[in-house]
Design goal:
Blueprint (H helix, E strand, L loop, with lengths): L18 E3 L2 E3 L14 H10 L11 H7 L10 H11 L12 H7 L4 H19 L5 H33 L7 E6 L2 E6 L8 E3 L23 H4 L1
Helix pairs in contact: 4-6, 5-6
Length: about 230
Amino acid sequence: PPLQHCVDGQKDRTAAPRRATGHTMETKETPPPVLKPQLSKKQLAKAQRRKDLPIDEHELTPADCCKKHEVDMQAGLTGSQVAANRLKHGWNRLTPPKSTPGWLLYLLQYANFFSILLVAGGLLCFIAYGIDGSDVSNLYLGIILEVVVFITSTFSYVQEAKSNAIMLGFKNMVPKKCKVVRDGATAILDAADLVPGDIVEYQEGDAVPADLRALESHNLKVDNSSLTG
């Protein structure tokens, strides 16, 4: 079945009652409480999203896997189960990260330490040439430094843009349609409509619409070259 994306208060330290033992007095104190940092709702939600999903379906038998998700292997989920699972787990789609505009991404390439250092060096060369125009080497050196910063920043921007394009390409790997068994009938639905516990039918050449646990298969092979290269 597919799986988706799926403060303690401080108390005063109090000493325990003393106990006399002949010639000595023994004092026991309670350890100081451990203070836990208070997180905002936004930080708590971010930490919750970063938690790894507990995936153990591959360790279960097909019968136990179906029992865990309360689904019949032949009939699939019912409409009420689908609604409850979608309310709990959401839609079967990737959450796109916040994108940075291209112009801002390009300007950020000039914000690293070495680029700033080279730009500052070039400006100092221009200032030195303005003070003493007889030494043309300062002008040439300043131009070279600025050109080096321009070339390296542009190259870094192109590489980062290609990496972002590859990450966006992963969205196309998720098929738009898939064959699902629900209420005893097979239907072709959008892959985003899948919920944990759905029974998915697939055949040769189909793209995997979600994290699936194979219940029945014959000579199953999976092509992971798009991920592993």
